[in-house]
Amino acid sequence: MAAVSLRLGDLVWGKLGRYPPWPGKIVNPPKDLKKPRGKKCFFVKFFGTEDHAWIKVEQLKPYHAHKEEMIKINKGKRFQQAVDAVEEFLRRAKGKDQTSSHNSADDKNRRNSSEERSRPNSGDEKRKLSLSEGKVKKNMGEGKKRVSSGSSERGSKSPLKRAQEQSPRKRGRPPKDEKDLTIPESSTVKGVMAGPMAAFKWQPTPVKDADPHFHHFLLSQTEKPAVCYQAITKKLKICEEETGSTSIQAADSTAVNGSITPTDKKIGFLGLGLMGSGIVSNLLKMGHTVTVWNRTAEKCDLFIQEGARLGRTPAEVVSTCDITFACVSDPKAAKDLVLGPSGVLQGIRPGKCYVDMSTVDADTVTELAQVIVSRGGRFLEAPVSGNQQLSNDGMLVILAAGDRGLYEDCSSCFQAMGKTSFFLGEVGNAAKMMLIVNMVQGSFMATIAEGLTLAQVTGQSQQTLLDILNQGQLASIFLDQKCQNILQGNFKPDFYLKYIQKDLRLAIALGDAVNHPTPMAAAANEVYKRAKALDQSDNDMSAVYRAYIH
Length: 550
Hints:
Elements: E1 11-14, E2 22-26, E3 41-46, E4 52-56, E5 60-62, H1 63-73, H2 77-118, H3 122-155, H4 159-166, E6 190-191, E7 200-201, H5 217-222, E8 237-240, E9 246-249, H6 253-256, E10 267-270, H7 274-285, E11 290-293, H8 301-305, E12 309-310, H9 314-320, E13 323-326, H10 331-339, H11 344-347, E14 353-356, H12 362-374, E15 378-381, E16 384-385, H13 388-392, E17 396-402, H14 404-409, H15 411-417, E18 418-423, H16 429-457, H17 462-470, H18 477-488, H19 497-513, H20 519-533, H21 546-549
Parallel strand pairs: 10-11, 10-13, 11-12, 13-14, 14-15, 17-18
Antiparallel strand pairs: 1-2, 1-5, 2-3, 3-4, 6-7, 8-9, 9-18, 15-17, 16-17
């Protein structure tokens, strides 16, 4: 992009690395974010996301002059939403300008009218001047006497009244040394920048000047008064735990995706279900080169429009890509994908990498690892904790085990799809941990359903029960969302009931293998089995509620 003359507040098209040009606004950077050395650049906040970055001036173009050109070359859904956000911003700004100009005109007319009424004639002026000169000396003498009495008089007045009388400011305008009313933010909330950008803390945003187009997704969640939400760390870090596991933590991708430098490796992805679809979408958004395959080919069309390439078979995807991810439903599907006709194994050769993100048992993932490695490939298991919404938002939790070097090679991919990833050691550990996590979640969901039905049959308000839970220690997004599903009778799948039942079954088998009792999981599993018998398999896990009312 050619260099242009720009200034603070300008709307622009900014290009960052391999990302397409995106609409943004030149703003002041946070105080502790230093400007990079070298070529001239501006700090830009992008519309439709929470991205922000220092952009070199030659990578910027004026928004209005190049709007039509940019719209023609980018047809993505998120891009259109960003453009819509700019237009809404302009409409609001125009409305404020019109209101401001109207008010200023009214103020000017009132001042002129007031000046006309208060302007004295020349005779009156002379008389007032002579009278005032005669009183000056008298008042100067009396002024000294009034000093002590004046101070005692002020002491009897309230601080608020004294401040109002003493201040010559216009009403409603705060003094320079007063702090603006601000939205409180957790001290852990930090922005993360890479390359030319340095890490910094977000400055509190004044309420009166808040820009709705840069409203943070997580902050919008915390505004729900009935629910308590955890603050989320927004700093990339690697921390070694006593257990030997490694955690790479990142902010939600909507807040830091401008800081992710996508790997130059070619990425493949197999399986575009509820979870896989959101993952691929975020990989593309972050600028990764992605080739997709799905058993039902029609699901690939949307991602082809977003810039993905189409693979005809799993073997073809693996053979043409450096790292191939897979996310399928269960152990059988995971094995068929690798060992079946035109499967993953046929595309594996030395150096090829395979990452299985499916939730399966440790025996299955160990078998897959062995056959991949036997062909000279590299293997990593990386099941994910979350649901469809978290997948779409790039907020998954990734549990990885296997090839440590491959885990590090997947860093930009994991940052794009999740908020946190953990490396848990040897193959099989991630599968075990994932089953334990889902066992807890599935059992909790069954308990929620049980509590709501018990409230109903004993004449208690289910909504009141939810309000009480949301004010207590159990408050969470999961609790609130699943209870809302039940109260509204909306069981559109965010996490299929049949899959949570599968995970409970596998977790119980894991306990049996080490002779560890799992009575709570076993009881919950029976309730989910009853829900499946009531044809709830393809509904959300919250539909387990129906097992209690039939």
